[in-house]
Structures are given as C-alpha cells and as structure tokens.
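RETRY 2/3 - previous attempt timed out on the joint model. Re-submitting the same 404-residue input unchanged.
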Amino acid sequence: MSEPKSQNIQWHGANLTHEAREEAVGQCGCVLWFTGFSGSGKSTVARRVEELLLLGGVFAYVLDGDNLRMGLNKDLGFSPADRTENIRRVGCVAQLFADAGAVCLTAFISPYRADRDQARAMLPEGRFLEVFVATSLEACEGRDPKGLYKKARDGKIPEFTGISAPYEEPEAAEIVLQTEGRSVDECAHEVIAHLRTRGLIK
Amino acid sequence: MSEPKSQNIQWHGANLTHEAREEAVGQCGCVLWFTGFSGSGKSTVARRVEELLLLGGVFAYVLDGDNLRMGLNKDLGFSPADRTENIRRVGCVAQLFADAGAVCLTAFISPYRADRDQARAMLPEGRFLEVFVATSLEACEGRDPKGLYKKARDGKIPEFTGISAPYEEPEAAEIVLQTEGRSVDECAHEVIAHLRTRGLIK
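RETRY 2/3 succeeded.
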C-alpha cells in the first residue's frame, strides 16, 4: 500500500467562506418566491426577470413546474401530501441555488402558507423574498390561458386552487405585484428594483 | 373585471435560448460527477476545484452529502432503494444547475453504474464528465478519516461500499483521477485542465 495521503486530503481542502463566495460571484444568493393563482403571471414575470438579470450579468435561474415536474418531482402527483412534498423539494433546491450565490426564482402556486414559510425558514434573514402575484381570481379565470379554469368549473380537475381548493394569501410578502393593466416588463422591473434597493444585486 | 392582460403576459415572456444564456453567463453548464470509495477524496478534490473555479470567475457549486442529506434528501436512508432515489435526486438537481449554466460538481460514492448512467442521460452529450476518483480500497481504508471502515469491518455499519456492498467501477469515465501520492491541488488542477481542454470554461 502506498503512503496514504490522508493528511493532504484533509488539510488542503480549505474552502471559501460563504462571504468569500459571494464576493467572488459578485452578487448575493437569494430566493424570489413567486406565489399566486394559476394564470396570475408568476412564471411569465419570473422568466422575464431572469432574462433581464442574465443580460445584466447576474447569475439567475427559474425553478417552475416545467423543469421540476419532468425530473426531480416526477414521482409526485397533486394530492395534498404530494403538493407539500413538491414545494418542500422546490424550497430545498432553491436554498441550494441561493447557497451557490444565484438569484433563484421559483414560480409555483404554492397555496399553503405553511409550505411557503417552511421554504422561507431555510434561507438566512433577508434572502427570501415572497413575491405575491396579486392577480385576482376573476382576472386569472378571464385569462385562462390553458383552459384549466373551465375544466375546473366543469368538475374535470379536482382540487383546483381558487375553485375547489384554498389559496392562502401571503400576509407579509416582501413584494406585492399588481399585474392587471400592466405589462410584463413593468412588473419585472419592479422586482429588479427591489433586488437593487435591498443590495442583493449591483 | 378589468381588461385582462393575458396577451401581455403571454407575449412578452420571450426567454433566452440556452445558447444565449450560456453566452450571457460566459461558461458552459456541465456536471462533474465524482465517484469512488468513501475516503477516496471525492469531496475534498471537488471542493478545491470549486474554490479555484470561483476565484477564477467561474460559477461553480458542489453537491455532496453535507448539503443534500440535511435538506432535500433528509427523508432518505441507506437502503438500496433509498440510495438509488438519493442519487436520482442528486442527478436531477445537478441537471438543473447545469441547465442554469453552472459547473456543478457532485461528490457521492454512487456505487451503481446504472444510477450514474441515469444521471448522465439527463445531460446533453459532452456536458456530463464522470470523474472516477481511483483511490484504492486499501488506501481509503488506510486513511479512514471518519473511522467508518473500522466500524464496517466490525460489522457495525451494514452494506458499506467496498466492505459489504459492491462498488461498480466506471468503465469509461472521462477523468480517472489518481490521488495516491499526489496533493489535492495537483488533482484539482488536473480536473480544471480537462474543463479547459473541452472548452467548457475559458
């Protein structure tokens, strides 16, 4: 057996502190947690914010149903327990992205306050911003881009948030986003202004 | 009901292509999948690579037992099924980081070839690099930094890889890392040279 190099392996592994990491990446890791009804505009605004941040040199990434339900959460359905586990995993992944130094945007209905608070509890103070996309149920149902509200009204989708399942509004969201009568860009810039004001990005 | 702005919400959401994202972040998203025995040096080398990349302006992040078992995978134990689910989730999260444009390093024993191949299959060609940390079982057991081999030999840890559970060596790892008789820095620089050669970082 050759001389074990365990000393080397143990000693030379000194890593960056979290502060040094953020200094190196030039931004603060944080989570922008978008919540609201189906059709409220969560994903659309989040993706526009992501795009503007990336073009401005900020490392940002959106987690939403599109990239989560196909992979990490493909074993989960829509029962209350599965929805809670879905949001738990999203929170954990968002925490990892924030730990890495990214601006992580999540876009899920996330109707239960307890689930959102659990995600919040995983982040340091000031690094979790709840973004309540406050589009009214009436407006969302009027948009109904995927025809889901119609199906829910017809009883074809059980436990549909706002129709046959509850939505617990945030009580102290860091950002309350009005989307009705406003463009996606207006909404996106409002979110980015919040990040700047809080010193999370330059 | 006010005028629905669904057109705005739908139309203005044009997003960056994956190519434009990588252009914006200035690097190629990829996964460096470290595999090898307990004590082989996977985490230590991965964390040193991460540190050097960050200091060089590359967005990088290590997924390992420390940050996964406490959060995302805290519901999982060490049964074969749980190990497979553990690695499945790690693969999915690594894929998300790579999709975001990061260099994602994973450091798990990941003893089963099928599990590693499943993770590989989630990435585009050339974006998954298997790093076989080829420290011999004898050297790992000689190091035994956490005293785990001793416990395993004493029968106190069941299904311990290399002692009482199998390790399936990679057959075509992109990088085979010899650690015995070498420093952590030598190993880390070898990995980084591979990234440069492949054009994944500048």
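Chain A touches chain B through 59 residues (CB under 8 Å). Closing ticket.
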